[in-house]
Design goal:
Length: about 400
């Protein structure tokens, strides 16, 4: 066949997308093995029936044709009002583009700010799709390393140095963070904002976990002085409303940028189905009580998990302040995160994500998703810790 473009063949450097343990666990499940899956951020309680009813009614009511590419006006207005109320930054529908999930928002944002070959910074550890997303937009993905002893918070000086060395056009951050659970404090965000202003960077802020807060508070960098005009915020209904499969998210950006992003959406996705947008609008009208109910199991399971970890001293937890994950340091076993995850899956049919799936900085760690019922999570973590302890005696 004719040759494929380097853009598509080089999305995953080294030929790996970091999901091998997940794929292997799913194959075991398909073959009939009972696996405790603690891999991906998928709610174990599915989309609320009332939201599905709204989707059903909208579809049967006829909203199954082409919807407005930027998003239906009522949803864009509701998102603008939500953001204005939560951040204090005046936001209108012209600042909103509805996208097929947060991932499409990440891709579109990088397409908007990068020319082919431009460098784009992102913080390591990172959500597994980040470097591939940048490469898909024909950018050069440049990681900025962090350290476990700093709770994987980025060093603004290191970001500034990386921007200067690479000539970067953008910086991608994620708070609350996947995979680490870290929430960037205000001082860190202010320092990163200063770097963006000094280096003339776009800041792409992935805030899809902003309703899953266990300690402290979430601050959107768009609220900081001089940042509204150089920040693109990625949001999603996936985590806040357990609507992962509905694929509905958004970008918040300066109105001129949104105008150009609408052009991109017209040439690519051509919008989001209207009945899904109607369901998202209905979900937003349920208010913060629904969001808290969806977040509550992860708050409870985080506390449970930390209790299990505290009962031993081989595995340690990175402080988790938000999101539905816990990053565990298993370096005392002498294994890499990948080897530990493989051996745990083979020996005990428990699937966790290797830290190396999220970058070099998380080597020797594993990420646990708090996405099974409390009793099963308690048992799995107890087994994980006992397994880690046994490895120290090999």
């Amino acid at each position: 066949m004719p040759q494929l473009s380097p853009r598509i063949t080089q999305l995953n450097e080294g030929g790996s997308d970091g999901w091998e343990v997940f794929y292997r666990a799913r194959a075991m499940v398909a073959a009939g093995t009972d696996v405790t899956e603690l891999t991906i951020g998928e709610h174990d309680i599915r989309t609320a029936p009332a939201i599905l009813d709204a989707m059903h009614e909208a579809a049967h009511g006829g909203h199954t044709g082409y919807a407005m590419v930027p998003g239906i006006p009522a949803l864009r207005a509701a998102l603008a009002q939500r953001l204005t109320e939560r951040t204090g930054v005046p936001t209108t529908a012209e600042n909103i583009l509805v996208t097929p999930g947060g991932q499409a928002g990440l891709f579109s944002a990088h397409m908007a700010v990068l020319d082919p070959g431009d460098a784009a910074l992102y913080v390591d550890p990172y959500y597994a799709t980040y470097p591939g997303t940048i490469r898909a937009a024909s950018g050069r993905a440049v990681p900025v390393q962090t350290r476990a002893r700093d709770a994987f918070l980025p060093d603004p000086a290191a970001v500034s140095e990386a921007a200067a060395e690479s000539g970067a056009k953008s910086l991608l951050i994620n708070t609350p963070n996947n995979p680490t659970g870290t929430i960037y404090p205000q001082a860190t965000l202010e320092a990163l904002a200063e770097v963006c202003r000094d280096r003339d960077l776009w800041l792409i802020s992935d805030e899809v976990y902003d309703t899953q807060l266990w300690e402290g508070a979430h601050l959107s960098p768009r609220t900081l002085p001089g940042m509204a005009e150089r920040t693109m915020v990625i949001g999603s209904m996936s985590k806040s409303h357990a609507m992962t499969g509905s694929r509905i998210g958004w970008i918040v950006a300066p109105a001129p940028a949104i105008e150009r992003l609408i052009d991109l959406a017209t040439a690519t996705t051509y919008g989001v189905p209207g009945y899904i947008q109607d369901a998202a609008l209905f979900a937003l009208t349920r208010g913060p009580d629904l969001e808290e109910r969806i977040a509550a199991p992860f708050r409870r399971r985080r506390a449970l998990a930390l209790e299990v970890i505290a009962r031993q001293d081989t595995v340690t937890a990175i402080p988790s302040q938000g999101a539905m994950y816990l990053m565990l340091d298993i370096r005392a076993t002498g294994l890499s995160g990948r080897d530990f995850a493989d051996r745990l899956l083979d020996a005990h049919h428990i699937a966790v994500m290797p830290g190396e799936s999220f970058g070099r900085s998380a080597a020797g760690h594993v990420r646990v998703a708090l996405t099974v019922d409390d009793a099963r999570l308690d048992a799995a973590l107890g087994t994980l810790c006992a397994f880690a302890e046994s490895l120290t005696h090999e």
